[in-house]
Amino acid sequence: MTSLASEMFCRVDRVCRHLPVALNTFLVFSITGEVSYLVLVEAPLEADLKKTQWSAWWKLVHLLAQYFMLGNICWNALLFLRTSPSIKGVFLGGEGVGQGWRYCYSCETHTPPRCSHCYDCKVCVLRRDHHCVFFGQCVGFRNYRYFLSCLLFMWSGLLYATLMNAEVFIVILKEGVTVHSVLLLLIPWIMLVSGQVSARAFAFAFIADTCVVGFLLVSAFFFFHLFLLFRGQTTREWYSSRRPYNLGLQGNLRCTLGHRWYLSWLCPLIPSPLPGDGINFKVTGSLEPTQ
Ligand SMILES: [Zn+2]
Ligand SMILES: [Zn+2]
């Protein structure tokens, strides 16, 4: 009975771990599908709002931009998930510990500076930033590039989708700010279940809402990580007010995005080897908290 319960718990745990990735994938593809539909079928939604019909070329430019962003989001997400940032399989240099090294009792090994144990991944992670609940994996030395690029294209994609969906808001609110239109935008699910709106109106309102909320959320994450990138800090170092590994703007960009930092964000397939090994870091400031 106990083993059955533990097996059930393991299965539920596994499903819960994959749920955010599945939900995000569903949302990303739904939003892309909706904006493609807006470009191909509904653009312009109201002929009198836009003076001219969109030409085939202009629609093609929009579609190419959308699928470029979608491709980058998916590819970076895939590479992020497939690139383990942990110490597994990494030669840490024997027992020759130096300044900043610690002993991890869970992994039973000495670990280098900036490395810390993740209790979700159950392993120590090199240059650990944080455990990303949306991907169910840690962000560390080897996969930070893919995490940042994915955030960049999610941010630009959601900005684009929000602007495209502005017309949906205009159409919904065109007849005036009524209780019906406000409720459709605020609680589309309840309006659908109670039979107040059609499935089509619900789908547009739901996706438009998701774009706005997603854009605000991703903006906060994206600009926070840009701020950390420019300062050469990890989220953990920012929490503890330490900034000992700052190499200047260009040095920090190179350490995170690799030698081809000026190109690597454009496509995850552009080779951009990271300087260093994730074990040894040049110390340029005090290892003690600055406050
Ligand atoms: Zn550990
Ligand atoms: Zn983790």
In short:
This protein has 291 residues and is mainly alpha-helical.
Helical region count?
9
> Which structural class should the secondary elements be placed in?
mainly alpha
Largest sheet, order of strands side by side?
1-2
Chain-averaged pLDDT: 85
Helix-strand pattern: HHEEEEEEHHHHHHH
Helix content: 55-70%
Portion in beta strands: 5-15%
Whole-number count of domains: 1
* Uncertain spans: none
Cα-to-Cα separation, first versus last residue: 53 Å
The number of E-state strands comes to: 6
Rg over CA atoms? 23 Å
Q: Give the overall shape.
A: globular
Which ligands, by name, code or SMILES, are bound? Answer: zinc ion
* Biggest pleated sheet: 2 strands, antiparallel
Catalytic activity: L-cysteinyl-[protein] + hexadecanoyl-CoA = S-hexadecanoyl-L-cysteinyl-[protein] + CoA
EC number: 2.3.1.225
Protein name: Palmitoyltransferase
Transmembrane segments: 21-40, 60-81, 144-163, 169-190, 202-230
